[in-house]
């Protein structure tokens, strides 16, 4: 009988505990973390993204853009934040990646960011911000298209938010025109780190697609990731807590449940 080849599952679990991962990556710089993501990739999609991230982070390093990576441990861990990327564009670009470390006996349990998916998500966030910074510094023509698309989305959202507010339609408190929509850097930052902003994006139509799909499409193009990886990339960027444990193919309908 002919055995049909089964599609590869795009899960993010690897055979290492959150403590083991923390011990391996603690003290690494961002290039080393990217190399770790490539070496430990649980599937081909994760490896493709990790390689794209590595190339962009290396370009940032070559342009002497300061970047730090830190695993927070002990009482300094945050209660409900898996990880974060803090960026400073002016006067000089600088980026800090912080990951919530594992739980330890005798301390209150908090969310653990030392899992493969969180690490890949935060490093993707870093690389995306870096690409925009590089474009601003060099005027790279290959980055103009996706950045222009993000700028159009930003302006569309400013108008949409104001219209919804005027109609009494709920708008995420953090999605305001002075902060989250102040510029493309802020749109990327909030779009990658705030689940309520992602839900709002998914619920608006922009150029025959929902806003979240267009947002991720621009990220994909910034990092030169194949269009065939669009759907999987959307699920990686998504902040739905369930995606930390559930296989990617089981989450396709997650935005349809948002009201």
Detailed description of the structure:
The chain is mostly helical. It has helices spanning 18-25, 30-39, 44-62, 116-138, 144-167, 184-193, 195-202, 211-222, 230-237; strands spanning 67-72, 83-88, 94-100, 205-206, 209-210. It is globular, with a radius of gyration of 18 Å.
Task: Compose a concise summary of this entry.
The protein is mainly alpha-helical and 259 residues long.
Layout of helices and strands:
Layout: H1 18-25, H2 30-39, H3 44-62, E1 67-72, E2 83-88, E3 94-100, H4 116-138, H5 144-167, H6 184-193, H7 195-202, E4 205-206, E5 209-210, H8 211-222, H9 230-237
Parallel strand pairs: 1-3
Antiparallel strand pairs: 2-3, 4-5
Helix pairs in contact: 2-3, 2-4, 3-4, 4-6, 5-8, 6-7, 7-8, 8-9
Output the keywords.
259 residues; mainly alpha; two-stranded antiparallel sheet; 5 strands
Strand order of the largest sheet: 1-3-2
Structural class label: mainly alpha
Report the β-strand fraction as a percent range: 5-15%
Order of helices and strands: HHHEEEHHHHEEHH
Overall residue-averaged pLDDT value: 84
Rg for CA atoms: 18 Å
N→C terminal distance? 47 Å
Low-confidence stretches: 2-8, 241-259
């Amino acid at each position: 009988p002919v055995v049909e080849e089964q599609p590869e599952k795009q899960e993010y679990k690897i055979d290492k505990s959150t403590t083991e991962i923390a011990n391996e990556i603690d003290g690494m710089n961002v290039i080393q973390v990217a190399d770790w993501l490539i070496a430990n990739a649980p599937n081909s999609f994760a490896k493709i993204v990790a390689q794209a991230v590595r190339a962009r982070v290396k370009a940032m390093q070559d342009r002497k853009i300061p970047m730090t990576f830190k695993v927070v441990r002990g009482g300094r861990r945050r209660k409900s934040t898996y990880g974060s990327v803090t960026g400073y564009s002016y006067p000089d670009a600088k980026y800090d990646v912080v990951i919530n470390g594992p739980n330890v006996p005798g301390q209150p349990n908090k969310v653990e960011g030392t899992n493969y998916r969180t690490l890949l998500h935060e490093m993707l966030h870093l690389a995306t911000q870096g690409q925009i910074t590089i474009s601003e510094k060099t005027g790279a023509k290959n980055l103009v298209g996706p950045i222009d698309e993000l700028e159009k989305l930003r302006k569309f959202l400013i108008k949409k938010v104001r219209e919804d507010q005027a109609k009494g339609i709920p708008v995420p408190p953090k999605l305001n025109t002075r902060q989250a929509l102040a510029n493309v850097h802020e749109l990327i930052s909030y779009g990658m780190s705030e689940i309520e902003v992602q839900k709002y994006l998914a619920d608006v139509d922009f150029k025959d697609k929902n806003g979240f799909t267009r947002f991720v499409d621009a990220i994909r193009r910034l990092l030169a990731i194949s269009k065939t990886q669009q759907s999987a990339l959307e699920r990686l960027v998504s902040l739905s807590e369930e995606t930390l444990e559930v296989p990617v193919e089981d989450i396709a309908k997650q935005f349809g449940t948002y009201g």
